Amino acid sequence: MTKKIADAVRAGGELIPFVDPLTVPPVLRPDSADVLQETEIALRPTWVRMHTQLPPTLMWGYNGTVPGPTIEVRRGQRIRIAWTNRIPAGEYPVTAVEVPVRAPGTPPATAEPGRGGAEPNPDVAALPSWTVTHLHGAQTGGGSDGWADNAVGYGDAQLSEYPNDHQAVQWWYHDHAMNITRWNVYSGLVGTYLIRDDEEDALQLPAGAREIPLILADRNLDTDEDGRLNGRLLHKTVIVVPKHPETGKPVTTPVTGPYSTVNGTIWPYLDVDDAWYRFRLVNASNARIYDLVLVDEDDNPVTGALHQIGSDGGLLPTPVPVDFDASLPTLTIAPAERMDLLIDFRALAGRRVRLVNKGRGQPPGVPDAVNNVPYPQVMEFRVGAKGRPDGFVLPEVLSGSFRRIDHAHTEHGHRLIVLTPPGTVGGGGHPEIWEMAEVEDSGVTVPTEGVIQVHDANGELKTYRRIARTFNDGLGITIGEGSFEQWSFLNLGGPVHPMHIHLADFQLMSRDAYRADGFDPQLGGTVAPVEYDPAKPIPLAPNERGWKDVFRVPPGQLLRVIGRFDGAYGRFMYHCHLLEHEDMGMMRPFVVLPKEALKFDHGAGHGGHDGGHGGHGG
Question: Which of 154, 274, 300, 343 would you call most buried, defined as having the most Cβ atoms within 10 angstroms of its Cβ?
Answer without folding.
Answer: 343
